[in-house]
Write a sequence for this structure.
């Protein structure tokens, strides 16, 4: 599966944001972004996908995802619980780096941030402490909310037993940098044209770069060739349709750009170690 890039903020000086969601809806939205993300699920259970990790979660699940690490979650039937809620904190690489430089006492946070490139899962006990710092954040001044955010990061960095979730290690890209802008153009082109029979030369012509430059971009950022990335992106879109719709598998194969169902089934099973039908059943349980 290949994720889409999510834009957390259009502000060039974005620092951090806290969002609180009630009555969360289950949707397979496989994505990543250049910010760190801390997620706390309350009164929810389901499955979470972080890089190459697939696992279950229960009430009070707390996870930290590093920049460019693909992730999503799906919820089980208790999503109708009126008490279910999710807190998400996003913060930029630039903001946290400047904070650590300004306050050397926070230096231990850096190791946790490095580990978060593989995804981290924290204990329920720590989740409770984080929840108590977040629950009334909307009634606090921005300054007090910031102190709570810093306290949360310190608690996470000083905790023992955080679990690394997978072997996938995302690469960092400088926010606002030339390479990131090029990667975004590549991703946008594929997002708009993956259903069609597109070639590397089409992408080169569209964004006005050479084959050698694009090949380096795919090797550095996507860790694969153009053709492999395109196939994986199509499989990711197929997974979204398998989970979020009742469209037949044959029609899904055609919608995402595979010219025949046999090729689709073969590539899907090679990538996910299960058939499209088995994958759909996994999320219908």
């Amino acid at each position: 599966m290949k994720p889409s890039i999510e834009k957390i903020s259009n502000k060039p000086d974005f620092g951090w944001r806290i969002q609180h969601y009630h009555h969360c809806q289950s949707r397979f939205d496989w994505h990543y972004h250049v910010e760190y993300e801390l997620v706390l699920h309350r009164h929810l259970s389901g499955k979470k996908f972080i890089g190459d990790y697939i696992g279950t979660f229960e009430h009070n699940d707390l996870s930290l995802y590093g920049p460019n690490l693909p992730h999503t979650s799906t919820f089980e039937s208790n999503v109708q619980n009126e008490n279910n809620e999710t807190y998400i904190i996003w913060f930029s690489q630039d903001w946290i780096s400047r904070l650590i430089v300004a306050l050397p006492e926070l230096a231990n946070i850096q190791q946790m941030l490095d580990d978060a490139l593989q995804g981290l899962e924290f204990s329920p006990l720590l989740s409770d402490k984080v929840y108590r710092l977040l629950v009334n954040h909307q009634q606090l001044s921005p300054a007090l909310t910031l102190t709570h955010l810093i306290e949360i990061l310190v608690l996470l960095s000083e905790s023992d037993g955080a679990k690394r979730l997978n072997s996938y290690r995302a690469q960092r890209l400088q926010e606002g940098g030339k390479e990131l802008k090029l990667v975004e153009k590549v991703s946008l082109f594929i997002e708009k044209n993956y259903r069609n029979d597109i070639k590397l030369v089409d992408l080169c012509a569209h964004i006005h770069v050479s084959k050698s430059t694009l090949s380096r971009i795919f090797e550095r950022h996507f860790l694969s060739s153009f053709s492999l990335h395109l196939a994986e992106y199509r499989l990711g879109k197929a997974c979204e349709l398998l989970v979020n719709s009742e469209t037949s598998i044959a029609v899904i194969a055609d919608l995402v750009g595979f010219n025949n169902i046999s090729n689709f089934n073969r590539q899907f099973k090679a990538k996910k170690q299960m058939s499209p039908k088995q994958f759909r059943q996994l999320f219908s349980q």
Remarks:
- The radius of gyration is 20 Å.
- The domain at 4-164 is CATH 2.60.120.10 (Jelly Rolls).
- DSSP finds eleven helices and eleven strands in the chain.
- Residues 38 and 199 are 37 Å apart (CA to CA).
